[in-house]
Amino acid sequence: MTAATKTATALSLESVTLTFPDGDRRLTALDEVSLAVAPGELVAVVGPSGSGKSSLLAVASVLLRPDAGRVVLAGRDTAGMPDRERTRLRREQVGIVFQQSNLLPSLTAVEQLLAVEHLRGGSVRGARARAEELLESVGLGEAGRRRRPHRLSGGERQRVNIARALFTGPSVLLVDEPTSALDHERGEQVVELLAGVTRRHRTATVLVTHDRGLLGRADRVLTMRDGRLG
Ligand code: ADP
Ligand code: MG
Fold first, then answer.
1. 3-229 domain in CATH 3.40.50.300?
2. Which residue of 25, 56, 65, 70 has the fewest CB atoms within a 10 Å radius of its CB?
3. Ligand 1: which of 16, 18, 20, 22 to mutate, judged by most atoms within 8 Å of the beta carbon?
């Protein structure tokens, strides 16, 4: 993905409502949520547990279809899009980082990234230099890049996750509570890194956290409460 194809608003949610079945009623997880994020912008979303933060990311990543409203990703309106196309769009345009590092235990840091290329049917040989470079850029040195997850620290594992999320050159980066398993200092470093990555890779980044202490690096801070974003 080249910078030229990144549109002014990389991610846009327009009046999105998402409900889940809840006994014989429905629970409203997102209540007419609107949000637009530009390339190179870091938006933080805070809010209590159960307020809808992860639901917001699930809809933004076009993993879940909203009941109402529109999600526009990398200039593409996903509302009427068939599932196959939505999946492809997600793979190409969305990088996702979760709270728990979901790295494969048997692979080294470099191989975690190469596995992405392999799954896409790309050339692993051609991808190696790029994988090494990305890991270097998130602060993982030569030795760390050869280690499997159990020999990396929690902070280093999150760095690998971030590098892996960036590997396809996504226009949108969605990050769900990336610091909850880390101490405050390591958490700050990860947020610092995400801010830098957002600038350098021009991603539209949404960072969900319940830790208000980490918000200094965000361009905007929004609060989620009972499925409403304000
Ligand atoms: P947060 O990430 O802020 O903790 P969530 O988005 O996970 O909030 O949840 C918002 C609301 O939606 C909660 O009431 C939660 O119980 C409900 N919810 C989330 N996912 C599901 C699901 N798959 N099925 C049913 N209810 C869900
Ligand atoms: Mg959550």
1. yes
2. 25
3. 20
CB of 20 closer than 6 A to ligand 1? yes
Across the chain, mean pLDDT equals 92
What distance in angstroms lies between residue 34's CA and the mean position of ligand 2's atoms? Answer: 18
Nearest CA to ligand 1 atom 26: 20
Q: How far apart are CA 200 and CA 119, in angstroms?
A: 26
Domain map (residue ranges) of the chain: 3-229
Give me the pLDDT at residue 166, please. Answer: 96
- Candidate from 22, 54, 98 with most ligand 1 atoms within 8 A of CB, to mutate: 54
pLDDT digits (tens, 9 = 90+) for 111-143: 999 998 888 777 888 899 999 999 999 999 999
In the chain, the N- to C-terminal Cα span, in Å, equals 32
- pLDDT confidence of residue 4: 46
Tokens of 204: 């539209």
55: Cβ below 6 Å to ligand 1?
yes
Confidence class of residue 7 from pLDDT cuts 50, 70 and 90?
low
Q: Report the nearest-CA residue for atom 16 of ligand 1.
A: 50
* Separation between Cα atoms, residue 96 and residue 171, nearest integer Å: 11
Cα 17 to Cα 69, 190, 201, 203, distances in angstroms: 6, 31, 30, 25
Residue 184 pLDDT? 86
Report helix, strand or coil for 152.
coil
Whether 1 has a pLDDT exceeding 50, the answer reads: no
Å from CA of 89 to ligand 2 middle: 23
